[in-house]
Write a structure and sequence with these properties.
mainly alpha; Hypothetical protein af1432; three-stranded antiparallel sheet; 52% helix; 8% strand
């Protein structure tokens, strides 16, 4: 009897993300250099890719160990994020960018904002589902764990062919002009405040317009009023907020 050798999995590398006809795709290359696109539905491939990312960067395991998080990859969450929230965040970010005054547009790279908005929540694949889907307010410890998702996403993607500018926006997409968000800025590191604000406000608006297990879907006016508070607090430039308002009035009807 001839025993067949077990088929080896092809090594793949995540090159980034693209949007085609307002749908998001992950861009992969295999060991032969062939490039291909995958939606969030290909759970086996994404799980394998994330496992490789963890292996390549010990910092990920260090974070998980610190917060006693099991290194379990939640591909169901990734599928939902890719087809829903991350894709919608990208749509909003591109809409906001298109409606910005020219003096702001020239300060940022549109392609970096686009890619970062599609990948910003990748780190949530390692956040326990009981925290992600808790139908109540998170306690202090749970909030601390949830807040690691942007750093985890950054550390995972650092092992791949993602630009440093995109990585910085992913890591700091919960920061603001006051630098009172998370994670804390490393000494000497100041990411593009404009890019961070565009991804951040798009992320928040998308989240507020979705129904969550702990609250109902907010309407357009309710969501915009909540975000206007951040303008008054000096966390977001009025021009960026105004671009979101124009986008919402035009496309979110």
């Amino acid at each position: 009897m001839i025993l067949k050798k077990p088929r080896e999995k092809k090594r793949v590398s995540l090159k980034g993300a693209v949007q085609i006809n307002q749908n998001s795709y992950f861009v992969y290359t295999d060991e032969a250099g062939k490039t291909f696109l995958k939606t969030g539905k290909d759970e086996k491939l994404h799980k394998y890719a994330v496992q490789k990312m963890i292996e390549l960067n010990p910092s990920v395991r260090t974070i998980l160990k610190k917060y006693k998080i099991k290194p379990s990859i939640d591909t169901k969450t990734l599928k939902e994020l890719t087809g829903g929230h991350m894709n919608e965040t990208c749509n909003i970010a591109m809409g906001v960018y298109s409606l910005l005054p020219e003096y702001i547009k020239v300060k940022v790279d549109k392609s970096v904002i686009k890619e970062a908005s599609m990948l910003h929540d990748l780190g949530k694949v390692l956040i326990p589902a009981k925290i992600l889907n808790k139908p109540a307010k998170l306690n202090i410890k749970e909030r601390e764990i949830m807040n690691t998702h942007s750093t985890i996403g950054y550390e995972l993607l650092k092992t791949q062919s993602i630009s440093e500018d995109t990585l910085e926006l992913i890591k700091y997409h919960h920061q603001n002009l006051k630098h009172s968000g998370y994670p804390d800025l490393e000494e000497g590191k100041i990411p593009s405040d404009i890019g961070v604000q565009i991804v951040s406000i798009s992320d928040k608006y998308s989240a507020l317009r979705e129904a969550r297990v702990y609250r109902r879907k907010l309407n357009r006016v309710e969501a915009l009023l909540i975000l206007y508070k951040e303008v008054r607090e000096g966390k977001i430039l009025p021009d960026i907020y105004n671009a979101l308002v124009k986008y919402a009035q035009k496309f979110d009807v």
